[in-house]
Design goal:
- The chain is an all-alpha fold.
- It has a single domain, classed as Four Helix Bundle (Hemerythrin (Met), subunit A).
- It contains 4 helices and no strands.
- Helix 2 packs antiparallel against helix 3 and helix 3 packs antiparallel against helix 4.
- It is elongated and about 55 Å long.
- The two termini are 27 Å apart.
Length: 141
């Protein structure tokens, strides 16, 4: 989040700029807007089950309806879409893809521990859910 601000308000990353393409910019806005919608909807559907940290709250339930019927991690998908949107909207080889790099680090560090924690808590119910859903892209992965 800091790099785009530095890019806007300083010449720090000027060397990595390239010409803005209006079609790619428009696509980036649509992708980022889709990511924001998905982020909001994921939070709504998780309700009290959402936590910023990797822990389960008292009364935590496994959510398998709505978006979660098709994806195990729609919130991570939303973050990816926002990062991809930034890469398309910001015409800079450093600042544009910076959030994509941050996303892949976040994904690599958090998803396996999160899925392990859910399997420990919900057992066969979660393993059955794993068999029916994809991680980030419906029907693909």
């Amino acid at each position: 989040m800091i790099l785009p601000l530095l890019w806007v308000f300083s010449p720090l990353f000027a060397i990595a700029e390239y010409p803005l393409n209006s079609v790619i910019f428009a696509a980036g806005v649509l992708v980022a807007a889709s990511g924001l919608w998905l982020f909001r909807q994921s939070h709504i559907e998780l309700g009290k089950n959402w936590s910023i940290s990797l822990d389960l709250r008292e009364g935590h339930q496994l959510v398998t309806s709505g978006l979660y019927r098709h994806l195990r991690h729609p919130m991570y998908t939303s973050i990816f879409l926002c990062a991809l949107g930034q890469a398309l909207v910001v015409p800079n080889w450093i600042v544009g893809p910076a959030n994509l790099v941050a996303f892949f680090v976040l994904f690599a560090v958090r998803v396996q521990p999160e899925e392990r924690m859910m399997a420990e808590k919900f057992g066969d119910q979660y393993r059955s859910y794993l068999a029916k859903t994809k991680r980030l892209i419906p029907g693909i992965w």
